[in-house]
Records
---
Amino acid sequence: MTTNSNDYGQETGSNRPSLATNGSFHSSESPDNTGTGDNSPYDRLTGWRHGATWTYLVMLVASISALLVSFILSGEALELARHPNAKLECDVNALVSCSTVAQSWQAEIVHFGGLSFPNAFFGIAAESIFITIAVLGLARARTPRWFTIATWWGGLAAFLYAYWLFTQSMFVINALCPWCLCLMFATTIQFMALSHATVSVHRIPSSDRFGTLASSLASYYRLHFDLMIDVLWIVAVAALILIDKGAAIF
């Protein structure tokens, strides 16, 4: 990650960290930047869009949005627990119905003893962690390599979980929750930004160990293919909803 040498004490000579033009921190002694020599493909990732400020700012906004939606969904879960027959504000019709989704088993997959816990509760916990990670990124805090890798896997797990719930809602429950869709899209943007930061800021995977993969990912982001894929992904999901459920929605 990016940093200022004064943030980590006095560092002189060959051990002094260097600040890349894209805002990534890399040093021969850095635990988070294995394989970042003079010929690293990541050196071509220059400009504001590949720096820590932009990537982690996008992640922060998406994570805050997801956290707010998780609070709303948690409130609705508590409302249904008190009043099982209550009609929620987002119950528009038979298809667009938050209460139908909230009362399905998929909305509470974690059970402990005789208790079940709404997924939204875990969303609050998870998004709080992602917000913290985004703030660390914006602050250019140095983190161990294993932490960065674990963070990416955690983001992937959240992304896959959100889309599992989406497919269950679309094709099994046959009801759509507007707040759940907002959470899914926020999680999507969050993961896209996190992946971008993992490659361009942290320079993972290592270009020494995974040269071909590192070069491909560097080109993917340098040529802005990620923007095209991100937009196409979101448009495709929205189109799927409209094609499959559009008649019932409107």
---
Amino acid sequence: MTTRYVVTDVPRVEVRGVKNGIHSPPISAAKRWFMIQDTHTGGSIGDGYEDREEAAAHCERLNEKFKS
């Protein structure tokens, strides 16, 4: 049986609108983040994680649901 969910390392992209005179918080220094990909559908789960271990732990929990 193949693993359904895997952690992938992807470039981090943030899109922000800028209005004159309004200051927005600084963009995170992280240039990469970790996404959980569904290998059956090609989709991703969640918004992404800055910590690989946190993403891997969530991925393990998801994979446990599909073991049978």
---
Amino acid sequence: MKDPRTQLKIPVAPRSEALTPDDPRSTAPKPGRPQLTLLPGNAAQPPEAAAPARPERQSTLRPETPGAPGGARHTPGRRPWTPPPSRGPAKGPRRPGSARKVPPAALWGAGGVLALALLLPTLVVVTTNHHPAPMPAPIPAPAPAKPTKPAAPQAEAQLPNVSVYLTKTGQVEVLPMEDYVTGVLAAEMPADFELEALKAQAIAARTFIVRRLVDGDMSGVPDRKAMVTDTVSHQAYISKEVLDKEWKGQGKTAELAKLRRAVQETRNTIMTYKGKPITASFFSTSNGYTENSEDYWKEDIPYLRSVASPWDKALAPGYKETVTISRKDFLTKLGLAGQAITVSTGQPFLQVLSTTEGHRIKEISIGGHVFSGREVREKLNLRSSEFSWETSGADIQITTYGYGHGVGMSQWGADGMAKEGSTATQILKHYYTGIDFMQASKLLSNI
């Protein structure tokens, strides 16, 4: 390691041409000539003890005093500096501003050294074993930029509010769509169903209301300020006030939290077919199969196809139900009271003529009059259009299988699938053929 040394150099004005060490005008050290080196503390050291110094970048000089060569300054009150006599004629004319070499003998006096150090403090260059990189020229600071507002976070997709006609009070409740879906979920599906089944129901409920909004369908609503009612004519619904007060008061806080979780985890999601929201029909319990749409509504809807639903029979408590009705009431409700009833020898009073792909009654003959299975179900207020019967004296016992119209998703079937590990999307894709999923907000933003 090299010892740190302090070296005194007399800077000269820059020249346009390069000087060689042999040139008399050169300030580079020549062999055999002693160099002055100052140790820390300005103590003089004989030239033979000084370590060779690395080339240094010369310091920038302060304004020169006229007449002082090489940038030496004249201090008022002191004797002006004069150059020592030259050792010989220069090889060429000296240009203005160039410096003469200082003979080493002129600088060996300690007093002269100290005086020169005091006079020229800015010309002392300290060299050590560490040589920092030269500092770049200062760059003017740019004008301060105008303060800018931070970028606003992307707003969460907004869904429109839903206005619901409350049949009990005749009032219209307006609330966010996801709160409406929570109210439908609470009214339409038991809270103790599997979470994935609840999520499937939430998506179906959201799809139903979005379709009405897209189509501008306000049918079946007695108040023009409302979009839907709280009945099964649209979707059963429990108001937010009832959920917040009565459910919590009845100790159903955990059930309500579960419903809200199902809604939150499916937020903004709906089912579509070819880019449009579907008719997301659903019902309680199948007879083992769902129904084709045209077998119940006369309209052929491609995603409402008959599929197997074997879970209902094992899980649903209302899968099978038997009711007894008198023959008189039976005929009256079907509009056959007082009409001639054809009785043919060997022909039954009730006879099934055809069934649907979903194993429900499509057409049935009653006393010679033909009815659809849906007509009989609705006129007699039966749970399903798949039924069997027995006559006993003046009464007829009718046994139904399943509960609901049978089109779309079976709720008990959805719970059965969830128990077996199916996700909400898998459940929905099973009951709604060929559907896709998309964000409701994206669809509603285009209307």
